[in-house]
What does this fold into?
Amino acid sequence: MKPLRMFLANVGRRKPMLFPEVMPPMGVLYLAAYLRTKFDLTLEVVNQRMDNCSNDELARRAVEFRADVVGFGSMTPPAHALGELTGKVRAALPNALILLGGPHVSAFGARALEGNAADAAVPGEGELAFEQVLHAHFEGGSLADIPGLIWRDPSGQIVANPGMVPLIENLDSLPFPAYDLIDLRPYWRVPSMAMVPRHKYICIVSSRGCPYQCTYCHHIFGKRFRAHSAERIVDEIEHYVRTFGINYVEFVDDIFNQDRQRVIEFSELIQRRNIRVKIAFPNAMRADILTRETVDALADAGTYFSAFALESCSPRIQEHIK
It folds into this structure.
């Protein structure tokens, strides 16, 4: 396959007075890190939420980059911009492959391709499916053969392939997210997801999937828990301390404490290596499976903050939302 120019963007602007917090675009960074191990890529990554640029400016950047592949990841609130973004990119780069991903696609399925000019949409976990799409598109294969993919056939009809987008079984096989593709310093000047301003931090997603069945939750990573090993997590933190000089870590898993033994091993290892960082869990802790041992281990590792999702005190509502 020829070398490719790939433009990946996290879509959505922020409102500093209402929602000032911003975090690195983790989905895009993990995707970029994986794909550059498989293809000869020149990559550009943009987080619209950090830059707060207009949709016109974001589309212009993709066009000026002369992208062969444009990927837009989006949650649902800013997804209304996808029509404008893909339309402008398609008009200027008629031969570019335009792909959608992120929580909006996972939630809306085939409807995510309505009203925009994207060629295909990847629900769920993106790495393996995105890789298959690139091989099919640039090597003469068929998008119809990729399980779970949503795409447009030559007539413009939206097709949802049967099956499920493939998941990565061994998360330790993934490279570290491609933090080298963004400038971290602006993130240290605004509140993070833990709402702490002006601190040198990094985000880590150490697990994927959740076995619980809460009715309101996403299903991007499936309902089976998969996790990095404790050693891999500590290796990653050590790398960021050495490379970027960070002293805070924010875990943005859905359920970091699902595997109690992994938490204990993580705590012991980070202390054994004398890695001195402060740790926050703004999105990653399930309260009803916490134990005293787990709490003590996390505190010993450097934890200073954790959020807990207390959806309802009503037994009736709790049962209703599972």
Remarks:
- The chain is about 30% helix and 15% strand.
- Residues 230-244 form the longest helix (15 residues).
